[in-house]
Amino acid sequence: TVPRRVSSVLHRDVKHFGKQHLFDGSEETCWNSDQGTSQWVTLDFPRPVRVSQLHIQFQGGFSSRLCTLEGCRTGEELVKISELYPQDSHAMQISFPRMVTGFQVEETVLDKLKITFGSSTDFFGRIVVYHLGVMGERL
Hints:
Blueprint (H helix, E strand, L loop, with lengths): L3 E3 L7 H4 L13 E2 L6 E20 L5 E9 L6 E6 L8 E2 L13 E13 L7 E11 L1
Antiparallel strand pairs: 1-3, 2-8, 3-6, 3-7, 3-8, 4-5, 4-7
C-alpha cells in the first residue's frame, strides 16, 4: 500500500469517510473532506514511479474546479507538475498525457505526489472522492 495523508475528514469520522476509501474500489464508500478551502491528498510511493494518468471520481456537487498536481523525488521540494480542470460530475474522469484538454497530466518520475483540490463546487469547500487512481510505471 502507498502511505497517504489527507487534509481533513468530515466530522473526523475516519471510519465512514477516511482516506482508506479513496482506493478500496467500492462504489459505496468515499473520502469526504471537512469544509474549508484547498483540500488535498498526498501519496508517498515506496520507490520511484513514472506517473502518466490520474483517474478520479468525485461526487457531483462536491468536486473541484481546479486540481493542482505537485511531485518530487525523495529529499526534494514539491514542484508543480500539472493543473487539471475536472468536470463537476460523478463520472470517472481520466487524464491523458499529450492531449489538448483541461484534464491532462505531464508524465514525470517522482516518489511523492500531492493533489490539491482548489475551488470546490460545494459552497462550504467540501470535496467528495469515490475513487482515486494513479497510473504509471514503477521504476
